[in-house]
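Example for tutorial group B:
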């Protein structure tokens, strides 16, 4: 089930929010702490037929309550008398609020500073307070932090447990909670109505993550990161899995300690990981083996677990980037041969594109804001190093934007858009399908541009086929084109 959270500030709009939430949720949480005046709880909950949870959180627990503690407890006691399906009570105040009528008690434990590791102790204490459901809430910035919460939900216990991870990585816990039997998962009705910053909306869970299709037999493909490009990857791949009737879905994760990651992925039976532009270098360390053409880049954007238990890494960005670039040049044979190519950036994606263009006999130079790093990469890969302040003194046929952290501007450390000339072809592999601001500048200067969405669809198609051995359905690939 899904619990849709509503946080109205007006009593007049509260009923409207409840009616809207009832269209999408199985359970509704009405947060009283956001209301400016005391509500008629009985009148509000009578507006909907779905079960309603009443909560009123203190600021120390991430809520918005500004009144006294005595007034808050009085409000909660009156709310119970109104007869909601559930009342949420903090662990420390639950002894002072007795059970009343048929209202079930959610005994809640919240900490905002770090994960709680004494799960058993908290659970036993909550059980002693006549809990019907035990709720845990704490920050989950990485998979490491969500792990104790997931273990709490997935274990066999005499009382059901629900959990709410704070931050964007709550998505990880929510989707895993769905698989491992959490009574419900939480979502906001819409942006601006989140119980906590970063909480997913019910529409995201439906349209991007296909949460309703997840069950105990679902297999997850991990997608590292929560940026726009990772969300689009999830949207496209999930559409492909759905189209082909596969019980596979994407699981967004924020990676913490690489050393612990392998154990957690094994426990979750995750057999594939897709990395965004900022994670490829870190994930390279997880690969037990890589394609023979990839070691020099030190960059891995797809990992597949083989039957032997070994993780094999692939670098798909240079292949899709090179294919899109050559298609744009469109001269057959080796269109990069003897063309002057400038790669901007020094990370894994930049290294990979240096290698790719070298294989096609391009005359490759590399440059970046940190000359020492660029010089080192040039020495390792056998290409030309161009000091950052000298890139404007040489004419290039092709410019590759290969680092999302490159800054566009005229200040020191930035790439001045005057670099671009109308005779150039510009490829952006920094964070496809998103376009780097430098690419926008190249368009303004009438350069021939390789659209990042072309790189993205090629890469997504290659990753999908590597994972499923099936072609990415055209309807799924078209999602990225439509969003451009």
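The residue assignment follows.
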């Amino acid at each position: 089930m899904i619990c849709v959270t509503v946080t109205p500030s007006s009593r007049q709009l509260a009923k409207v929010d409840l009616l809207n939430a009832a269209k999408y949720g199985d359970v509704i949480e009405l947060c009283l702490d956001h209301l400016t005046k005391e509500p008629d709880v009985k009148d509000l909950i009578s507006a909907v037929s779905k079960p309603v949870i009443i909560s009123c959180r203190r600021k120390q627990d991430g809520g918005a309550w500004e009144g006294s503690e005595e007034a808050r407890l009085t409000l909660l006691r009156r709310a119970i008398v109104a007869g909601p399906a559930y009342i949420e009570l903090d662990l420390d105040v639950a002894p002072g609020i007795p059970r009343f009528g048929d209202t079930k008690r959610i005994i809640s434990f919240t900490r905002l500073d770090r994960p709680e590791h004494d799960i058993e102790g908290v659970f036993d204490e909550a059980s002693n307070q006549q809990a019907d459901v035990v709720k845990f809430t704490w920050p989950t910035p990485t998979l490491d932090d969500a792990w104790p919460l997931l273990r709490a939900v997935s274990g066999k216990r005499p009382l059901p447990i629900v959990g709410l991870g704070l931050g964007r990585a709550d998505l990880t816990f929510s989707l895993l909670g769905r698989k491992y039997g959490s009574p419900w998962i939480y979502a906001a009705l819409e942006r601006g109505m989140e119980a906590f910053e970063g909480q997913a909306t019910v529409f995201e869970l439906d349209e991007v993550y296909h949460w309703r299709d997840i069950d105990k037999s679902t297999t997850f493909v991990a997608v590292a990161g929560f940026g726009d490009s990772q969300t689009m990857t999830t949207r496209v791949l999930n559409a492909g899995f759905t189209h082909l009737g596969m019980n596979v879905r994407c699981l967004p994760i924020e990676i913490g300690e690489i050393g612990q990651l392998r154990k957690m992925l094994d426990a979750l039976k995750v057999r594939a990981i897709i990395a965004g532009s900022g994670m490829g270098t870190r994930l390279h360390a997880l690969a037990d083996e890589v394609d023979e053409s990839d070691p020099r880049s030190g960059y891995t954007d797809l990992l597949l677990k083989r039957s032997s238990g070994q993780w094999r890494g692939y670098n798909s960005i240079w292949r899709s980037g090179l294919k899109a670039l050559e298609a744009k040049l469109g001269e057959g044979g080796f269109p990069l041969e003897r063309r002057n190519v400038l790669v901007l950036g020094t990370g894994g994606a930049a290294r990979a594109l240096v290698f790719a263009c070298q294989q096609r006999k391009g005359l490759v130079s590399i440059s970046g804001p940190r000359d020492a790093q660029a010089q080192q990469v040039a020495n390792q890969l056998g290409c030309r190093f161009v000091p950052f302040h000298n890139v404007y003194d040489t004419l290039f046929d092709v410019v590759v934007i290969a680092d999302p952290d490159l800054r566009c501007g005229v200040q020191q450390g930035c790439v001045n858009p005057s670099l671009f000339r109308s005779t150039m072809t510009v490829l952006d592999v920094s964070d496809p399908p998103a376009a780097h601001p430098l690419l926008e500048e190249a368009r303004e200067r009438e350069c021939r541009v390789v659209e990042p969405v072309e790189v993205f669809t090629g890469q997504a198609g290659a990753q999908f086929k590597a994972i499923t051995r099936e072609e990415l359905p055209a309807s799924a690939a078209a999602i990225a084109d439509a969003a451009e």
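The first strand starts at residue 2 and ends at 6. Compare this with the pattern of hydrophobic and polar residues in the output above.
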